[in-house]
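#help-structures
NK: newbie question, is this the right format to request a structure? protein is Amino acid ABC transporter substrate-binding protein (PAAT family)
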Amino acid sequence: MRVLNALLRQGLPLVLALLAAGSGAQTQELRLYTEEYAPYNYTVKGRPAGLSVEVVTEIKRRLGLSVPIEVVPWARGYRAAQTEPMVGLFVTARTAERESLFQWVGPVSATRAHLYARRGEQTGIRSLDDARKVQGILVPREWYIHQDLRGRGFTNLVPVAAPVDAMRMLLANRSVVIAMDESTVAETMRLAGMVSDPPEPIVKISEALLYIAFSQGTPAALVQRWQQTLDEMKRDGSFAMIHQRWLPGVPLPPSSHKP
């Protein structure tokens, strides 16, 4: 009896989450969306891969979940996480604009965003105010960088579907600058077929912590279990091993659950 009671106590949050998930929709299941955003999440031979994919996969394993990970355009996943129940979207930059839109699990990593130009290009850009004058800034649609610059009143943004599209357009001289995360530049270059002369950062835009974002229609108890499991991974060292394998030498994100 004591063993049974202990098991019930340990599994109660997850049981409650599963019961809550079924209360609104009889067969509602969790869906997990991600995008092409190397090295955090991207497709390799038709299968999701990357730092955050490994973290999410390990959380699923520890929770006994068999939910597939779907790679979709960011705008589609972002819209689903705002409008549909039982949706997880990763990785998602946690910003003030997004804070109330989702329930947050993380952080999974940290990143900084810059404006980049072709190496040696004389853009004349020395500040973000200078960047307002260029013909167009390529930026992945509805990324936190896009939302940030739009919120600052930039009217010369050129949204694209994915970071690799922005990189290819920069290579083809379709624009003089792109807005991108520093931790994704090298892998995005590779995917775009750029083997040398990486673009160089010219102006810093912002910093962000990256999370797994759950829709507000996801039971809070289930989200809590995801956070607890991620915290366990950070304590036992498995999270650090994954993070350093994908981002060697990059410091681990802070342990705080808030940006």
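mod (FA): yep, format's fine, and the tokens are attached above. The beta strands are 31-34, 42-44, 47-49, 69-71, 87-93, 102-117, 137-140, 157-160, 177-181, 200-215.
NK: thank you!
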